Amino acid sequence: MSEIVGSHDLLLITLDTLRYDVAAELAAAGRIPHLARHLPGGIWEKRHAPGSFTYASHQAIFAGFLPTPAAPGPHPRLFAARFAGSETTASRTFVFDTPDLVSALAGAGYRTVCIGGVGFFNRQGPLGSVLPGMFQESHWEPEFGVASPTSFEAQVARAEQVVAGLPAEQRLFLFVNVSALHQPNWFHQPGATRESGDSRATHAAALEYVDAHIGRLLAAASSRRRCFAIVCSDHGTAYGDDGYTGHRLGHEAVWTVPYAHFFLQPGATAR
């Protein structure tokens, strides 16, 4: 990353609440072909989330603490704030001297852009302004939120507008928090009703919906130069697992998340 920062555009996508087991099953079954074509070996990496809900996890991610490989470490990090005694800062780590990665990238000449999804990015109060406030430019509207059946399409369209408006020489750090996986997600499964509610199956259907449109986002992010992309979940969520529902709790379904990083070549197709 110490060589990538400054030469590449950067894309970070958090698939909010996406469970590892659902993501892995859909990749193996060929149900998310557009994502799977970019996953190393066609599979997700199993990792542990840095937090059990959106706010905590993103505070950690923006400080350089991406989800940790689900195996004994230490594991060198891509990004790290400079501090004495760090056991996960390696020679190839991008080390920064600011409080967070976003401001560090801005200092390195990047245009930092947030396209929010869930309520912690809606700027409708002090708490919802903290995370998007880290960025030079942030976007949120109700159509991007959890209650919109077309949230991801709207987010992708905004990302395309953002990229199209940048000068060719301007480096970009684009962050997209995808809200479609988050409850409510019943409307992504054909035939489902509000009364039937959300389930592991509707969660999976929401990931299929995201996959159908993610090619446009990846194409936009790589339309000007080679792009380094990170796609991961910030935490999972429970659908009755061992009696648990939701997140902000310490269950395997919440702590275990899918992760991938890969390069996008300039002019990547939108499919």
Automatic annotation (TrEMBL):
GO terms for molecular function: hydrolase activity. InterPro entries: Alkaline_phosphatase_core_sf, STM4013-like, Sulfatase_N. Pfam families: Sulfatase. This is STM4013/SEN3800 family hydrolase. Gene3D superfamilies: Alkaline Phosphatase, subunit A. Transmembrane segments: none annotated. Residues 10-253 form the Sulfatase N-terminal domain. Keywords: Hydrolase. The keyword Hydrolase applies.
